[in-house]
Give the backbone structure.
Amino acid sequence: MQTDLSKLTAAAGKWKAMAGEFKKLEDQYKRDVHGVTVDGSWAGLSAAAANEHFNVTLRELQGAQREAKAIASLLHDAHTQFVDLRGKVQAARADAIEAGMKVSAQGAVFFDTERLTPSSRNAYHHDPSYQESGRAERPNGSR
């Protein structure tokens, strides 16, 4: 429950920045390498062959941008979902405590006999039907 979930958004920011760096590389590659085969200054079979290879590299740079953005999006979504789920777990824990249960640090839930009066606690320990009613109050019969 104490995990720093902001690390996910920080990582997402770095992936988004990486996509920006791939965009810079793509622009530079288009201008300085790929552009040589399409500006008309180089013609012939060798230019056509080079253009095919350059197109592949260009598509790989574009694909790397898409993938980096997708990973950033996944990390943002994971952060949102984990924050939501942590809130639900905290609410469930608060509800269990309010209902007279005890919740361990590991998440185990059991009937809180410490809240009972001394006479009720004595009855709970010595009366099987009273213990059974305590068990019936537990969600899913957990201890």
Q: What stands out?
A: Residues 45-98 form the longest helix (54 residues). The mean pLDDT is 88. The chain has two domains: 1-80, 99-143. The two ends are 21 Å apart (CA to CA).
